[in-house]
């Protein structure tokens, strides 16, 4: 990390010098790494465990489908809109300080989630969690960059990423067990002991650091994109209850598009302060990989949101069994990344960025034709494994290609933009696939008015008794449609990779930016 310098911790702020003037002890480095792993694990676990608990939450709080979507969307909205600002704030005000603020905010919001008396309080608390995650996640990586020198940094980040993959793997299984044996509220209290340990280690052993060249925050851009995404999500989420031609829906979608256009204009004028420098898009590889990212995570995020509802409501899975059903996905992702990286090094990024999304599309298409009531091992398991192989082939070369496309000096910003786009894709997918689910569900219940169809869909999702077999079959068909749309989007991602990704030299990367 350019400009990040080591110094004794009692000096508080690390000042700019060409090298690391004081070497930290290995013990202090290891404990700083542990602090970042524990802090980031809260966000990783939270992101993987909440989907498993959604059916139970919807039933317990008597929420409709649109409100339930906002349990995920509120979190992703603030995380996606603010993660780049969080990274800038860490560089400007101190990485350890922002990390601790993020951990504290995330923990307080987690406790509020666990104590929520109704869906409104839960959604607001989840949004605050998103703000905390937007601060602590980039700050944790920045702390690693400031703690480890260039010879140790890659290894440290590899350990951080590997630990994140393992926590993501354990999250759904542990969360499902807590939902079945304790309560859905317990999944949010998982964060409290992790937060106490992370904050204690960071405060006691991590050194403070800043980037002396850091610019002021692009708050206008962050606020504008947050409003734009919120309006788009609100409009898409309201379609099941209000219909496609409702004035409220059209107005919300119009406001969303207008604010996103305003965001582009603000970024064009912000120059070096921009949270998303538009000059990056002169790079064909940067534009192509981010288009692929949008389509890939749109397909993947939307499918994973609705799959647990299918497993639990149609397949009769318990929450624990639904969490275990997704375990192969995280394990293959976690342990296959190094192989995928070597494959990309040997054959170049274009091949895996073409084949990977297409394999993912195949896995999603398999899910569309699986009978969720049949044996897991001959139905869901093969499809999950194919999806995992596709994602594993895609993610490592996707990240490295994004960073290489703009040159080493600005690779961190490019990676942050790509990460934000992945979060936004998941946010939009939940709302858009909700509209697809409702449209297909209504089509299979011929003659039922939209309001009655929406009521019937909410009954299925909430697991209410007395649901007619015809309604259950309509939900099954609608879920198949969602998986096929997801497969189509993943396929488009593979096409984008084939058409846009090219070998790039460091000289051409610098000239693009």
Automatic annotation (TrEMBL):
Domain Major facilitator superfamily (MFS) profile as annotated: residue spans: 32-505
GO annotation, cellular component aspect: plasma membrane
Keyword check for Cytoplasm: no
Transmembrane annotation, as ranges: 31-54, 74-93, 98-117, 123-145, 157-178, 184-207, 219-237, 249-268, 289-312, 324-344, 351-370, 376-399, 420-441, 482-501
Keyword field: Cell membrane, Membrane, Transmembrane, Transmembrane helix, Transport
Pfam family membership, one: MFS_1
Localization per Swiss-Prot or TrEMBL: Cell membrane
Membrane topology field: Multi-pass membrane protein
UniProt xrefs under SUPFAM superfamilies: MFS general substrate transporter (SSF103473)
InterPro entries: EmrB-like, MFS, MFS_dom, MFS_trans_sf
UniProt GO MF annotations: transmembrane transporter activity
Keyword hit for Cell membrane: yes
Name used for this protein in its record: Drug resistance transporter, EmrB/QacA subfamily
